[in-house]
Amino acid sequence: MPEDDEDQSPPSDLRSQPPCSPNKSRNCISSSSSQTFPDHVLENVLENVLQFLDSRCDRNAASLVCKLWWKVEGLTRSEVFIGNCYALSPARLTQRFKRVRSLLLKGKPRFADFNLMPPDWGANIAPWVSTMAKAYPWLEKVDLKRMFVTDDDLALLAESFPGFKELILVCCEGFGTSGIAVVANKCRKLKVLDLIESEVTDDEVDWVSCFPEDVTCLESLAFDCVEAPINFKALEGLVGRSPSLRKLRLNRFVSLEELRRLLLLGAPQLTSLGTGSFSRGDQSDEQGPPDYAAAFRACKSVVCLSGFRELMPEYLPAILPVCANLTSLNFSYANISPDMFKPIIHSCHKLQIFWALDSICDEGLQAVAATCKELRELRIFPFDPREDSEGPVSELGLQAISEGCRKLESLLYFCQRMTNAALIAMSHNCPELTVFRLCIMGRHRPDHVTGKAMDEGFGAIVKNCKKLTRLAVSGLLTDQAFRYMGEYGKLIRTLSVAFAGDSDMALRHVLEGCPRLQKLEIRDSPFGDVALRSGMHRYYNMRFVWMSACSLSMGCCKDVARAMPNLVVEVIGSDDDDENREFVETLYMYRSLDGPRKDAPQFVTIL
Amino acid sequence: MAYEKVNELNLKDTELRLGLPGTEQAKEEQEVSCVRSSKRQLQSDNEEESTPPTKTQIVGWPPVRSYRKNNNSVSYVKVSMDGAPYLRKIDLKTYKNYPELLKALENMFKFTIGEYSEREGYKGSGVLPTYEDKDGDWMLVGDVPWDMFSSSCKRLRIMKGSDALVLDSAL
After folding, report:
1. Given a cut of 50, is residue A167 above it in pLDDT?
2. Shortest CA gap A112–chain B (Å)
């Protein structure tokens, strides 16, 4: 309760001491004389009440009540989420919210991950860091996704925020190990350093040695995506002096032997472990193979296991001691055959999240279905991600999962063959589905048993899975599938379409239906100007629309831009500046409060 | 680089156009635009192993992020050393250049290799690293750019002793 914290300095004086909470205003403000007594009291009361609001939806609603609530909510919001970094300027952020401790920021659209956009498109963190450095000296957490972050940005961040605690970089790029080193060295209160699926250049800097030499506050250290060797001795030392460390995700340059040593050092506290390469270096066995299972027996608290970047399958059974406790298992970097897989999964009764390669085959998925009754999230990635690859998983695996894992909420499934029947079965068996992403890798593939389009299958999913918020479709799809989506996809917020549909009507169904649609990404589908125009009534209520390799004309895009001044309409060209191009290569449009961005590169035309 | 490759393949026969067969509409433009679009596609797939020439790769499809593709492709090649009782296997993808590879081989087989020069091969140590390429020819390691080597190398043979000496002096 705020009244108890008497030793907190007033939040208005940010330069003297860091306030632990922004709401300790009662004592100080009421002591200064004030004519507008009722307002101050009301503000104080409001502050003390609003501090309990965590959910940003609730906060957004509260801020709309009246000006006073808007102001006070702006003073008390400590965590800000910005889904599109170009939707507003950093200045607007700092004007609206005065006491931000935590920022979550997203940059590039997801299709940029698949080389559909030239590099250097933007999403630079620099202006945000420099603006926040002045406005939020007590910033504690920065969580970025698909942003461009340089070593200089990281250095500025490390210097500007003395209380900085958490840095999370997901799918980011532009920095290297030298930037990491600065953060490790300067952020003395660092609790979380999570580098996830980011591209980190190897500057040949020993960043692990850069952590301060005394006891650290580290709770989570994830560097599995860092493609650079590390100083193992320094890492051992770091783990040894990090008593709060709960999550450790190693990169592939940490061998099995080194992992074993780390586990014997700090395993009992770890709840989340990324195992690194899980293969042995070139060592001769002095007394026979080491007992890796013993190291895993020490991991009494591990519930989340990942890594296996260069798995030597003969050592996989070493993880058996932890299987019964696992709620999350990520095998998606390991080429594991069904025979090696089945004995392992057989023990994983508590598993809720499971990621793997399709090398486990339908047989492996059947084993998952038989054992993992608590499964909530399943992701199956292709070992051989090409259109014409073999495809060891199919509708059989999916059917088995739908029958065995009734609590399934989220699915990502890459395959080469699928049937409508399996999707229909899943739609009935798994009513909790909120995320359904199916990628049939061969384009325009129909149901491989009936030869029909996949319309009925996806139709059943949108119709029966009433909680569905995210959908990605594939295979042969006619306009009918989109009719179903528009009509039944009442809660869909994110929709991904590729190589699907017959005509503008398909997109029209979606834009005229799907009342909650926020994010729409479409590629290589025959949707044109008529379809684009049909959505103009709703683009302001969406986060973004992406359409590449469709049939949109420049003229229509210009019309939309003209009609909707608060919409930033970007046309992204390809390498060739072909003026005679009939259709726009890529359209990326999003609402913005502060107009078009000033940092657009040459290949982007803002209409 | 990819540009030249495409030209050699006479894509015109396989290209998709809107004209009736037999019509030859602005031939020059067609070739260029087809090649350009292919260029973009092929350039984006620079992590992939060489694909069969008649298929055009679609950019970003299937939608798997590139770091996942990289990690899965492993290229183990057998390494034999003259006089050693058994062969070894190494994953070429773990090395970025020749010095790294040669150092690893030196460690693995406990020998030292001489210095490489384009003109004279490996001088002085009586040890020659050779490899079998895709065409089945035995080549000297180090002559071609690393990327070309790592994608065409099928197996390695470290020649030692009299064979190596003969070749050494012949170079």
Report:
1. yes
2. 9
Report in angstroms the alpha-carbon separations of B78 from B49, B90, B131, B153, B161.
Answer: 19, 7, 10, 10, 20
Residue-wise pLDDT tens digits, A357-371: 999 999 999 999 999
A90 CB-near residues (< 8 Å, 6+ apart):
A127, A128, A130, A131, A132
Q: What are phi and psi of A477, to 5 degrees?
A: -135, 135
Interface test with A, best of B64, B108, B109 (most A CBs within 10 A): B64
Cα–chain center distance at A517: 19
Q: Quick check: B49 and B151 in contact, CB under 8 A?
A: yes
pLDDT for position A499 = 97
The full 3-state SS of A276-331, as one line of letters, equals CCCCCCCCCCCCCCCCHHHHHHCCCCCCEEECCCCCCHHHHHHHHHHHCCCCEEEE
For residue B10, the cross-strand partners are: none
Mark yes or no for CB contact A498/B68 under 8 Å: no
Handedness of CA A587, A588, A589, A593 (dihedral sign): negative
CB spacing of A282 vs B108 below 8 angstroms: yes
Cβ–Cβ below 8 Å for B60 and A114: yes
Q: Shortest CA distance to A174 belongs to which of A145, A197, A151, A195?
A: A151
Angle at A124 between CA A118 and CA A129, to 5 degrees: 170
Using an 8 Å CB-CB cutoff, list residues of chain B that contact chain A.
33, 36-37, 39-40, 44, 51, 55, 58-69, 71-72, 74, 91, 107-108
Which two three-digit tokens encode residue A521?
């990404």
Please state at what angle helix A395-404 crosses helix A420-429, rounded to 10 degrees.
10
**Of B40, B69, B108, Cβ closest to residue A385:** B69
| Residues A125, A31: Cα–Cα separation, whole Å | 41
Rounded Cα distance, A241 and A222, in Å: 17
Residues 6+ apart with CB under 8 A from B90: B76, B77, B79, B101, B104, B105, B108, B156
- Count CA atoms within 13 Å of residue A220 on its CB side: 14
Terminal Cα distance for chain A, rounded = 52
Contact assessment for residue A577 and residue A552, using Cβ atoms and an 8 Å cutoff = no
Residues of B in contact with A575 (CB under 8 A): 36, 39-40
Query: From the list B59, B64, B107, which residue is nearest A381 (CB)?
Result: B64
Give the span between the Cα atoms of A433 and A409, in whole angstroms: 4
A200: its two tokens:
């980190």
Q: How confident is the model over A174-226, as pLDDT tens digits?
A: 999 999 999 999 999 999 999 999 999 999 999 999 999 999 999 999 999 99
Residue to substitute from B49, B61, B79, interface A, most A β-carbons within 10 A: B61
Task: Tell me how far the alpha carbon of residue A528 is from its chain's centroid.
Answer: 31
Q: How far is CA A417 from the centre of its chain?
A: 28
Each residue of A430-464: b (16+ CB within 10 Å) or e?
Answer: beebbbbbbbbbbbebbbeeeeebbbbbbbbbbbb
Nearest chain B CA: its distance from A119 CA (Å) = 11
Q: What is the pLDDT of residue B55?
A: 47
Strand ranges (E), A340-458: 353-357, 377-381, 410-415, 435-440
B120 pLDDT more than 90: no
Q: What is the DSSP letter of B11?
A: G
Contact A251/A223 with Cβ under 8 angstroms? yes
Question: ipTM strictly over 0.90?
Answer: no
Please answer yes or no on whether B72 and A439 come within 8 Å at the CB atom.
no
Closest-CA residue of B relative to A497 is B63
What distance in Å separates the CA atoms of residue A266 and residue A261, rounded to the nearest whole number?
Answer: 9
Residue A538's nearest CA partner among A557, A519, A524, A553 is: A519
